[in-house]
Amino acid sequence: MSTNGDSPEEFKGDSRDPSGFLSEIIGAPVTVKLNSGIIYKGDLQSVDGYMNIALERCEEVSEGKVIRRWGDAFVRGNNVTYISADSS
Amino acid sequence: MSVDNLLPLELIDKCVGSQIWILMNGGKEFVGTLIGFDDYVNMVLEDVTEIDLNSTRTKLPKILLNGNNICMMVPGGDGTWVEAEE
């Protein structure tokens, strides 16, 4: 996992804080919601301290339907509202 | 919960493990259990309900919420409030 961002506690792997949660969900299916409301689903390949995100199998979802398939995608962190671990 | 002589982030630290209501800049809201947070007040939340501007509720099992757009946090809040009397 890349840690080039200015994460305040540099990913020390305690699942109670944000960095620990991120290392817990690397490789897992996630939903990423942007400030604009756009939703991306995919496998979380990596995250850094800016919340820049690399997604594999990335799909854009609108009203519960996949509207675009992007494959490998990079999302710039400043646009991210949240990263959600998919329950499935 | 006593909040005398408590720094703002100490108040949030006291909320870890309990329910919290988060109001975002754009008017969106989140209610969930606070699992943890960092110096930017990015937050890990569990059993989350996302409430958007037209009151649509979305359940999310566990999220990392970007602290950038957080406006206010209400310890113990469940997304309801009391109207002020005239």
Automatic annotation (TrEMBL), chain A:
Protein localization: Cytoplasm; Nucleus
Alphabetical list of InterPro entries matching this protein: Lsm6/sSmF, LSM_dom_sf, Sm, Sm_dom_euk/arc
UniProt key word Transmembrane: no
Domain of life: Eukaryota
PROSITE patterns, A to Z: SM
Ranges where the Sm domain occurs: 17-88
Region spans: Disordered: 1-20
Keywords: Cytoplasm, mRNA processing, mRNA splicing, Nucleus, Ribonucleoprotein, RNA-binding, rRNA processing, Spliceosome, tRNA processing
Molecular-function GO term, any one: RNA binding
Entry GO terms, CC: nucleolus; P-body; sno(s)RNA-containing ribonucleoprotein complex; spliceosomal complex; U4/U6 x U5 tri-snRNP complex; U6 snRNP
GO terms classed as biological process: maturation of SSU-rRNA; mRNA splicing, via spliceosome; tRNA processing
Family, similarity comment: Belongs to the snRNP Sm proteins family. SmF/LSm6 subfamily.
Function: Component of LSm protein complexes, which are involved in RNA processing and may function in a chaperone-like manner, facilitating the efficient association of RNA processing factors with their substrates. Component of the cytoplasmic LSM1-LSM7 complex, which is thought to be involved in mRNA degradation by activating the decapping step in the 5'-to-3' mRNA decay pathway. Component of the nuclear LSM2-LSM8 complex, which is involved in splicing of nuclear mRNAs.
This protein's name: U6 snRNA-associated Sm-like protein LSm6
Organism of this sequence: Massarina eburnea CBS 473.64
Lineage: Eukaryota, Fungi, Dikarya, Ascomycota, Pezizomycotina
From TrEMBL, chain B:
Residue intervals passing through the bilayer: none
PROSITE patterns: SM
GO process terms (BP): mRNA splicing, via spliceosome
Record-annotated Sm domain positions: 7-79
Keywords: Acetylation, mRNA processing, mRNA splicing, Nucleus, Ribonucleoprotein, RNA-binding, Spliceosome
Domain of life: Eukaryota
Pfam families on file: LSM
UniProt GO molecular function: RNA binding
Record's GO cellular component terms: Lsm1-7-Pat1 complex; spliceosomal complex; U4/U6 x U5 tri-snRNP complex; U6 snRNP
Subcellular location field: Nucleus
InterPro entries, A to Z: LSm5 (IPR033871), LSM_dom_sf (IPR010920), Sm (IPR047575), Sm_dom_euk/arc (IPR001163)
Main location: nucleus
PANTHER family (UniProt xref): U6 SNRNA-ASSOCIATED PROTEIN (PTHR20971), U6 SNRNA-ASSOCIATED SM-LIKE PROTEIN LSM5 (PTHR20971:SF0)
Subunit (UniProt): LSm subunits form a heteromer with a doughnut shape.
Family: Belongs to the snRNP Sm proteins family.
Role according to the record: Plays a role in U6 snRNP assembly and function. Binds to the 3' end of U6 snRNA.
Name by which UniProt lists this protein: LSM complex subunit LSM5
Source organism (scientific name): Massarina eburnea CBS 473.64
Lineage: Eukaryota, Fungi, Dikarya, Ascomycota, Pezizomycotina
